[in-house]
Amino acid sequence: MKQDSPSLPRFKIVMAIVDNIRNMLLLCSHAAFSIERNVRDSSYHVTSRLFTNLVVPHTALNYNFLLNPDVGWRGMLSSYIRFVDTAVLELEEVASELRKMPSRALRQKRLLRKWRECDHFLENIAAVQLGLHELKILEDSSIAGSTIAMGITYGGIEMPAIARAVAKAHHVDLRIGLAHVSIYSTKEVRKLIQSGKWGVVQERLLKNAPVVVFDDRGTSLNMKKEADIA
């Protein structure tokens, strides 16, 4: 297909493939995070590897496919094929490493779910971009330097990768990470959020939720108070 001229049907076929791989990578990242969250003193190195080496670059490719007018059809397809070839090998290695971990999460029946209720990718971009503009992160590099764009597993796991893609398109460096704050498993949190007290989420992130921040080398850090959380 990469030798063919671009057309709407071909573009839609490619984007369908991209979206299914997107879904698979997000499911795998959530599974890795869940496994490592149940390992004592975890460094989250597998989650970091998955997110940094696969989710972030795939999100950037997806973003460029849809919104970068300077990206050529054949060049983009060639880049994507190279990514998929690398991703297959990376996923095999990651799966092997996760199976060896002493985590009770490995016994969960729905650890790797059949389907993730993915939000619309473009809607996610719009939401993230609005948030970054509201916080003036794209206009002021000093604000970006003290901000971490966090994704809340399970449903918001993609958001930091999108934030990185949007920031990069504006030539801004932005740190990203993941955290686990569930409004479904914790009734107290759910009631506070439903009553409009959103500050409880940030409070949980800073005090007792698993918070993992990725650096550009693919390593992860458990962080609590070093930076503002977007």
Q: What is the structure about, briefly put?
A:
This protein has 230 residues and is an alpha/beta fold. The protein has eight helices and five strands.
Structural summary, described in words:
By secondary structure, the chain is α/β, with parallel strands linked by helices. Helices cover 55% and strands 10% of the residues. It has eight helices and five strands, in the order H-H-H-H-H-E-H-E-H-H-E-E-E. The protein has helices at 8-37, 45-67, 73-99, 121-134, 141-145, 159-169, 187-194, 199-207; strands at 147-153, 175-180, 211-214, 220-222, 228-229. A five-stranded mixed sheet has the order 4-3-2-1-5. The longest helix is centred in the N-terminal third of the chain and has 30 residues, at 8-37. It is globular. The termini are far apart. Mean pLDDT is 82; it is low at 223-230.
